[in-house]
Amino acid sequence: MAATKQTWTLEGESELRLEVDFDAVVVVVLKQGLCEVLGVELAAGREYAFAGAKVALYSWHGCQLETRGECASVYQTGPGETTAAAALNAHSYLETRRDEASRADSCGRDCRGPRVMVVGPSDSGKSTLAATLLGYAARLGREPTFVELDPALGDCGAPPGAVAAARVTRETLSVDEGFGSLDCAPLSYWFGYEAPREHPDLYARVVDELAVAVAEKLDGDRSANVAGLVVATSSWVDGDGFASLLRVASAFAVDAVLVLAHDRLFADLRQALPPSVAVAKLPRSGGVVQRDVVHRRRAKHRKIHEYFYGPQSHARSLLAKKDDDAALDKLLEATAPPLAPATHELPFRAVRVFKVLAGSTGDDSMLPVGQGSMLEPLQVVAVTVSPVLVHNVLAVCHPARDGDDAGDDDEHDDAAADAATSPHQHLLGCAAAGFVVVTNVNVEAQTITLLGPCSGDLPSRNLLLGKLEWMESNIA
C-alpha cells in the first residue's frame, strides 16, 4: 500500500495515476501549478475525495500535488508518456468544426456542430476520452450533449441499465463528482440490462428512441446544435456488435468516429461508413486498468446508490466513519450534502408493472405461403406484483398520452390495441421520468414499497422492469 501522505512534483505533460479501493478514500490537494482530471481543472488548495476510483491527474505545465489516504496503486509518468496530446488534437479538430458551425449559424445558414462517436473494446479508455472532450469543450463555453450508450456504466446521471443524454456546461463540470453533478436531469430511456447483447432488439429500440429525442432537442437549440454531440458507445464491437455500432452512427447522424486500441475495428469502420464520416485511430492510454468482475459489480452498486443518495455518497459514508480525523471531518462538511430519498408504500392497484419480451420466437417458414408474422419483434407484457420484484430497479415511464394513467383498468388500451400487438406497446417509446427500487412486497396487505430519489407522487404509475437488482446494504 502507498504511504498515507505524500507530495508529488509533476513535470510538464506528465501524470499522476491513482487506484483507490472501494473501501478506502484518498484526498488530493493541488498545492502549486495547474492540474486537471478528465479535462476539468482542479482548484488550488481545495480538497478532493476519491473512493473506489481510478484517477489520472494530468498537468500540462507542471504542478505539485499532495495525496492523503491509502492507495492500492499510485505512480507517476514522465513527459510524453500519456495520450493527452492525442486527446487535445481530437478536441482541436472538433473545436474547428464548432467554429465553422457557429459562423454559418451567425450568417443564417443551416449548419451543425460535430457529432463524434467514441468506440473501442472493453477497458480501452472510451469513457475517459469522451469525458475529456466534453470537459475541454465546456471550459471554452460550449454546451455539447453527452450521449451515454453503455448501459453498464451510468456515467450520465442515470443509473446503470439506462441509455441517456445530457447537456454539459461549464457550470456542471466537477473534478470528483463526474457527470453525476449535472444540474438538469438527463433524458434517459430504460434498457434494463448491463450489456446490449443481453437483449439486442430492445437495445436497438431504446437507442433509436433516444436518438430521435436528442435530434429534436438539438433542432430547437442553436447553441447545443453548434456544440454537437459526444457519443460514448458500449464495448460490444464484434459480430452483431459491429452492426449495432453502424446503427448508432446512423441514428445519431455521426460525422466523426474515434477508434481506440483496435486496428481491425478501425479498418472495418472506414470501409463500412460513408466517406463523409471521418474515422481516426487513437492510442490506448497506458493508464487504462483492466476491471475484473468484482470491480464492475461494485461500481454498478455504487452508481445506483449515488442515483438515490447523490454524487459522492459512497465517499461521504467512508469519511463519516473516520471520526478520529479532524481534517477529514472538515472535508465531510465541505462535501456536497446527500440527497434525501423517500419510501413510497402504495397499494397494488396504484401501480402497473411491465417488462419487454422478444415477440416472435418462431420463423416465417411455418406460416402459410406469402404470409409473414404479425407479431412485433418486441412485446410489452404486464407483470404480476409479487415478492419476486423485491430488489429490482424499475423505470418510471413518462405518460405517453393523455389519460394513459387514468383509472384502474386498461379498457382504453384494449380498445385501441391490434389483436397481434400488446396494448402497452406505447411504453417502448416513453422516456424514463425517474427510477425506483422495490424494497418490499406485502401480499397480505396488497402493498408494494418503493425507494425513490425524492418524495411526492410518482410521475406515472407505469413501471418498467429490467434485469437489474440492487440492495441498499451493498453501497459498493
Automatic annotation (TrEMBL):
This protein's record includes keyword Nucleotide-binding: yes
SUPFAM superfamilies from the UniProt entry = P-loop containing nucleoside triphosphate hydrolases
InterPro entries in UniProt:
Clp1, Clp1/Grc3, Clp1_C, Clp1_C_sf, Clp1_N, Clp1_N_sf, CLP1_P, P-loop_NTPase
Give the domain of life: Eukaryota
Q: Which GO terms describe its biological process?
A: mRNA 3'-end processing; tRNA splicing, via endonucleolytic cleavage and ligation
Task: Tell me where it resides.
Answer: Nucleus
In this chain the Clp1 C-terminal domain maps to 339-472
Coarse class of the protein's main subcellular location: nucleus
Domain Clp1 N-terminal spans what residues? 9-101
Please list the GO terms describing molecular function.
ATP binding; polynucleotide 5'-hydroxyl-kinase activity
Free-text function comment from the UniProt entry: Required for endonucleolytic cleavage during polyadenylation-dependent pre-mRNA 3'-end formation.
UniProt-recorded name of the protein: Protein CLP1 homolog
- The species is Aureococcus anophagefferens (Harmful bloom alga)
